[in-house]
Each structure stands twice: as structure tokens, then as C-alpha cells.
Amino acid sequence: MTDPGQLFTKDLCDAVGREALTSRLSEEFVLADVGADAVRSLLTFDDLNAVLSSCAPEPPRLRLHRDGSPVPVERYTEAAVSSRNPRRVVRPEALYRELREGASLVLDSVDRMHPPVAAAADDLMRLVRERAQANLYLIWGESRGFDTHWDDHDTVIVQLAGSKHWQVHGPGSRPYPMKNDVDHTHTPPRDAEGELQVLWEGVLRPGQVIHVPRGWWHTVTGTGEVSMHLTFGFTRATGVDWAEALVRRLFDEEVFRRDLPRFADPDVRGKHRRELAARLAELAEELDLEDFLAERDARFPRRTSFSLPWPVQGDPGPDALVEFVPILAPPLSRADGKVSVTVAGRRYRFPEAVAPVLEVLAEHRRLTLADLAERAGQEQERTARAVSALARHHLVLVR
Asked: Which residues, in sequence order, are CB contacts of 227 under 8 Å at separation 6+?
């Protein structure tokens, strides 16, 4: 059984090759087999039962689909009140009935409910350097939950249990369609006879992984047995994101804050437009992709997690486990005897002595305090003080 926190950066990269994988992301279909052992610890039926019981997800986070249409929530939930707020509670017996009759269960953001899936999602985020979310799909029989469709984000599908039949048809009529798009006439690819094109067809079994790029049409059906898989979705930065970042910079420019000369002569309006265009071109030249992506990484969110009692009381001991919170390792900047990091859009400054601790944690992510001190070349007492400071700012967890 392998570490779910290395499912993508190690297991998948070992199977495909890191450079081969990253160069094909969002552009090509990818099939790999990381082995059933690599996915066994992600999510079992016992784990799923525990999540459904303890987290009590309700629609639309948990929902059922059958033959391309949503199952009415009244068929498997009932009205309830929690802390004086109305909600829908899933009725186990009704859920079982719908699943026996061919419904597909979808559970969104299971990475926020089950730590091993969260570890795998974080690992994918470190590989693609984009935000990711994991949804669960569960079905029995030969039915299908959804019609032939495409997704507005890139997906990595990991088969956990049973099997599922896939047809991947490829990109449709609109290259790189987006969620918020101006053209929604995106049709699937067809051959000369008008039949759906099939680029790949096969049955996924536990440990097999596929990557389906954004906008690629696909058809998924049951094989007669159970199927449980995770879909990890992520949205890559596009030119639109770069342009939006450029627009945000325009608020610092007086010429863009100025009112448009609506009632001026055409010559005056033309001159103003040329001033806007010229300054816009200058700013576009200044905002290169490296700077844009660095700014995007600096705003990358961190998971909400807690580390009581250590951020409130005392310093941890040598056996305490220290875990780095930022998903992407932030660059360090040094000035005037201080070290600075920017995480989730916030800038933090610490004494220079904290820098070796940050560097070791960024590389190894999880260590005992004693190991951390040794790798950082510091006394344990000094490292404990640094860890306490980092914990108070939600940059490390202490267990």
C-alpha cells in the first residue's frame, strides 16, 4: 500500500514519466496503470460509510443521477431541521433503493471529508500547480448516470473498485470550451457516417487512471457490477486569466480611471482611445507570464486545518510531528535579517533563523521536530520556537 500523498507525483509519474505526463496534460488522452495497491488506501466502502454517517452530506453536494437526469431529491431525502435551519437528510433505505434501481451516486468535494483523498488531491495540485477537487462516483449494474458529455475542466479519473466502461470521443467543435463562454454550440466529433468518433474505448479496473482533457466528449456506462471511482478535476490558467490580471492593474492607472469623453468631439474621443490603447499595450508587455504565474501561485489557497493546542500553548517536544500547510512551497525572500513568505495572498515575516526550518519543511513536508531540527542544522529548542511561530500563523500543523 502506497502513500496517497504521492499518488500523482510519484506513482503516476513513474508509470507515465513526469515530463511526458505534464507535456500531455490538457492536450491528450492519457491511460496508465498505477496498480490496485496504489489506490487501495484512498477510499474503501467502510470509509465511504463513515463519511456519509459523520459528515451527513446533503444535496446538491450528494446527489443521484439516472439515465442522464437527476433523481428528485424527495425520493431519497427527507426534510429536517438542524440548529433551527432547514435541511435535507439522506434516508439510507431510500438511497439503497435508488442505487439498486440503477441510480449513480455523486459526492462532490470528498477531498474535504476524507484525509487520504485530500492528500491525493494536494499531491495533484503540486503536480499541476492548479486548484483541484475530488468527486466520488458510485454505480451498480449496466446503467449510466450521465449522457455523453464534456467537462469544462481537466479531469483525472482513478478507478477504486469494480469496473466501468469508457468511450473517449475527443475534442468537439469548439476548441478549449470554457465554463463561462460566449459560444455554447459545442458538439461532439463524428466520423464520415455521422457516428460518434471513438478515440479510445475500454474498461477501467482498480488502479487504472485516465486523463480526459477539458472539452473532450466521453460516454461512461456500468459493466454489470459495482463501480466506484474518483474524478479529480482541475482548471488550468488561460489567457483570459492573464487578461483579467492585466485589467486589475488598470485601476492604478489614472488614464483608465478617468471618465470617457462621451460628449467630446470625435477627434478628442479618438485621441483618448489611442492613449488607452497605448498604455494598455505597455502594461501588457510588462506583465509577462512568469510574473503572472508567480502572482497566481502566491494566492494559492491552503486547506483549512487546525492544530490545537500548540498554537496557543508552549513549544512542541522532539517527538511531535510537524506538517507543512502550504500546498505549493512558497519562495523565500530575505532582507534586513528577516525572511518573508507569501501564502494564500498573505505575506508573513519571520526572523532569519526560521528560514532553514521553512526550507526543510518545503522539501519534506512532514517530519518529527527532532528530524526537522537535525536537517535544519539547529538545536531542538530553537527549532521548537520556530515551529510555534509558524503554527500560530497556520503555516504548519503540529500533531
From this structure: 137, 138, 139, 140, 159, 161, 162, 163, 164
Can you read off the three cell numbers belonging to residue 27?
492536450
pLDDT band at 1 (very low <50, low <70, confident <90, very high): low
Half-sphere exposure of 318 (CA within 13 A, CB side): 8
Same domain, 166 and 51: yes
| Domain closes at, from 218, 234, 250 | 234
Overall number of domains in the chain: 3
Helix (H) or strand (E) holding 63: strand 62-66
Q: Are residues 228 and 243 in the same domain?
A: no
Domain of residue 253, residue span: 239-297
Biggest alpha carbon–alpha carbon distance for the chain: 76
- DSSP 8-state class, residue 237: -
In degrees rounded to 5, what are phi and psi of residue 248? Answer: -60, -30
* Backbone Cα Rg of the chain: 25
- 351-389 pLDDT tens trace: 999 999 999 999 999 999 999 999 999 999 999 999 999
pLDDT at 244 (0 to 100): 96
DSSP-assigned letters across all residues of 107-171:
ETTGGGT-HHHHHHHHHHHHHH-S-EEEEEEEE-TT--SS-SB--SSEEEEEEEEEEEEEEEEEE
What is the 8-class DSSP label of residue 23? H
Same domain, 199 and 292: no
Give the CA-trace dihedral at 305, 308, 311, 317, to 10 degrees: -110
Length of the chain: 399
User: Tens digits of per-residue pLDDT, 200-237?
Assistant: 999 999 999 999 999 999 999 999 999 999 999 999 99
State whether 92 and 118 are in the same domain: yes
For the chain, give the mean pLDDT: 95
**Rounded CA separation 242/299 (Å):** 14
Helices (H) and strands (E) in the chain, counts: 13, 17
pLDDT tens digits for range 248-259: 999 999 999 999
Q: 106: which strand partners?
A: 63, 137
Rounded CA separation 21/43 (Å): 24
Residues 153-174 have a mean pLDDT of: 97
Residue where one domain finishes, among candidates 234, 257, 276? 234
One domain, residues 179 and 291? no
- What does the DSSP 8-state code read for residue 264? S
